[in-house]
Amino acid sequence: MNVLFFFLIRYISTKFISFFEYFLKINEDYVVNIKSGKISSINIFQSNVIFHQMIRKKSDGRFWEIDFLRGIAIILMVGFHFIYDLNHIRIIYYKLWEGPFDYASKIVASVFFVLVGISLTIRYNRVKNKDSAENIRSQFFIRGIKLIGLGLIITIISWLIIPDRFVIFGVLHCIGVSIILAIPFINKKMITIFLGGIIIIIGIYLKFITIDVNWFIPLGFVPPKFFSIDFFPLFPWFGIVLIGISLGHYLYPNGNRRIRLPINDQKKYIKNICFLGRHSLYIYFLHQPILFAVIFFILQPIL
Predict the structure, then answer these.
(1) Which residues are CB-contacts of 19 (< 8 A; sequence separation ≥ 6)?
(2) What average pLDDT does the segment 252-270 reach?
(3) Would you tell me the crossing angle of helices 191-206 and 234-251 to the nearest 10 degrees?
(4) pLDDT band at 268 (very low <50, low <70, confident <90, very high)
(5) End of a domain among 35, 60, 85?
(6) Residues 120, 242 share a domain
(7) Within this chain, do residues 72 and 197 fall inside the same structural domain, yes or no?
(8) 54 and 169: one domain?
């Protein structure tokens, strides 16, 4: 267990250093020479220029409102998991799987899955006339496989740490499989919303029944007394992705925004939240080890 924790911290540190170096190397005139210990002098104005160059580079071709919503959702998700972790080690006591916290967690998750569908639609509409259908399907398939792979890493880690409730089919598994399953429907505008609604209804129904077979857990058929700390079955969550695809065709026809938003997206707080939204996968994958480190090494000794 100690070896696993060591490698997790090492991985997080490596990612943080890489990200930090990338931030400082946006402009070659302001590179930090870490090995020599010399740091180029950067005044406040120059730092601001570098930051805005970074924002523009990472946000070209993206719709800020999607990154903003994803950023809000990732903040709320991290907050929920922080409370869950405190609850898990008995620092606080709260029933997280019922009441307002349960509703809030489902709303936040729904935002993620709707945005998955919208993003797929935007990507498809932008490349459908520039690339072959086979290449487009291949790109989506590879993206789904990558997310499933990350989900399997979380499965292994959670099984080693909490084998009694490890992640069998969590949010990354579900999004990855949903992207692959959505490929035949990516160009459909109407059928996706109806099919999505049916899948959601079936998923709600499955919450009230159990089946003593483990093979169908990813679909939502769970055995008695089943519990996992992160469980997102295809019924109903794939349905939410399909609804997102339908919304994407309506809100972003041909990959362009239909409705002009009367909001100044250059405000600093909007840019900061969008920045989090653009890096939501990194945050999701790394936030739990960081939270555990904060709780065990900082909070627990003083509480």
Answers:
(1) 282
(2) 89
(3) 160
(4) very high
(5) 60
(6) yes
(7) yes
(8) no
Are 48 and 73 contained in the same domain?
A: no
Give which of 50, 69, 176, 63 is closest to 114, Cα–Cα: 69
Which tokens in the block code for residue 17? 């250093």
What are the two backbone dihedrals, phi and then psi, of residue 32, each rounded to the nearest 5 degrees? -90, 120
Residues 117 and 73 in one domain: yes
Looking at 60-190, list the stretches that DSSP marks H as alpha helix, in order from N- to C-terminal side: 64-88, 100-127, 133-161, 171-182
Q: Which conformational region is residue 225 in: left (phi greater than 0), alpha (psi within -120 to 50 degrees), or beta?
A: left
What is the per-residue pLDDT across 9-68, written as a single tens digit (0 to 9) for each? Answer: 444 445 444 444 444 343 333 333 433 444 343 343 333 443 444 444 445 579 999 999
Are 275 and 52 in contact, with CB atoms under 8 Å apart? Answer: no
- 85 & 38 share domain: no
Tokens of 99: 């009441």
- Using CB atoms within 10 A of its CB, is residue 60 exposed (0-12), middle (13-18) or buried (19+)? exposed
Indicate the pLDDT class of residue 152, thresholds 50, 70 and 90.
very high
The answer to whether 240 touches 117, Cβ cutoff 8 Å, is yes
pTM given for the model: 0.80
Range of the domain at 275: 63-302
Rounded mean pLDDT of the chain? Answer: 82
CA quadruple 112, 277, 282, 164: dihedral sign: negative
Residue 71: the pLDDT is 97
- At 93-146, the pLDDT tens digits run 777 777 888 888 999 999 999 999 999 999 999 999 888 989 999 999 999 999
* Same domain as 274, residue 146: yes
8 lies in the same domain as 124:
no
3-state class (DSSP) for residue 192: helix
Place of tokens 């104005």: 45
Domain count, the chain: 2
